[in-house]
Amino acid sequence: MKKSHVLLMLACCLIPIAALGAVFLFNVPVNTVILAGVALFCPISHLLMMRFMPGEHAAHSHEAQPTRSRPFPAEDL
């Protein structure tokens, strides 16, 4: 297993445990923990997606496609 995968799994397991610890040990209101989790979910998931899902832009050709004067061949008329 890759080291980055192990770190991601570890983080995904420890974050909910830390949230539960904050609720029970420090008497943080559950609403605050849920609101913070929802507010941070989008940017964190975006960063993870950008990190672990590299784009394949190099595979696409940026050459200009030849244009046709008609939208369909003449024999289809």
Condensed summary:
This protein is mostly helical and 77 residues long.
Would you write up a description of this structure?
This protein has 2 helices and no strands. The chain has a domain of 44 residues. It is mainly α.
User: How much strand?
Assistant: under 5%
Low-confidence stretches: none
Elements, N to C (H/E): HH
Number of helices: 2
Number of strands: 0
Coarse shape: elongated
Radius of gyration computed on alpha carbons: 24 Å
What's the pLDDT, averaged over the residues?
80
The largest sheet is: none
The separation of the N and C termini measures 59 Å
The residue fraction in helices comes out at 55-70%
From the helix content, strand content and strand pairing, which structural class follows? Answer: mainly alpha
SSE order and pairing:
Layout (H helix, E strand, L loop, with lengths): L2 H23 L4 H23 L25
Q: Characteristics of this structure?
A:
77 residues; mainly alpha
